[in-house]
Amino acid sequence: MPELPEVEAWVRELDPLVSAFPIERAGPAHVATLKTIDPPLSSLDGRRLAGARRRGKHLLFPTEDGELVLRVHLMTAGRLRYVAPGGKGPKTPMFRLRFVGGCELVLTEAGKKKRAGVWLSTPDQVEADLAHLGPDALELDEAGLTEILSGERRQLHPLLRDQRVIAGIGRAHANEILNRARLSPFKLSSELDEKETVRLAAAIHEDLERALELREREKDDRDVYRVHNRLGEPCPTCGTPIARVDYEEHTVYYCPTCQTGGRVLKDRRLSRLLR
Length: 275
Ligand SMILES: [Zn+2]
What we know:
Radius of gyration: 20 Å
Structural class: alpha+beta
Shape: elongated
CATH class of the largest domain: Mainly Alpha
Bound molecules: zinc ion
CATH architecture of the largest domain: Orthogonal Bundle
Distance between the termini: 27 Å
Strand order of the largest sheet: 1-6-7-5
Number of domains: 2
Helix content: 25-40%
């Protein structure tokens, strides 16, 4: 799933492109993808977008007149592409925005499950829809993080990727950040001392900014992730082979030397005992 750095890189790339020309035609959209019916997509026709913005992992495209916002969430397999006039775009995208002059913004989604979403609503409605999101991970400072950690008593890995707590971090960057901070994914947030909190706050920024810089240069997962999906490969800090714990829906990657005091966590039940 695209996380903050990837989405932010797209926002920066798309910002000048989507505002260059007025919209000629919005849609069609797949019935599973378009989540709103009022106002209709056609109400975008003839308007110009002010650019591209981001809130957590959501992409926002407000209209220049301030009346409407197109919101896109890519979920796991959704991808946005900007296609130049005459360029070869997908035959049946999940959603298409055609601009005057022939450029197109298209949303594709691999796989059978269609989970990516497109919403068209007013700025107030978008605010209400996204009000549950926590502070943006890139804007979170040490004081903000301290407050979050002390207010929750949860394992660090699920806490970091809870969008209501901190917006923008998912499974992959939770692995990267905790490795960089030398903290166990299973440590309880309420049990971090001051030094550990400082390390975690620094790791969030260092990891996300490094990833953003790489994503802006169109580097892919293999360049961005040093711990995530790298079972058995050397830890970037100490060289110990990266280990993992499997869950039903995802996998936690970590360095036993840097993060769990040398302990290898076999499965979820055991990991509960080894915080
Ligand atoms: Zn290590």
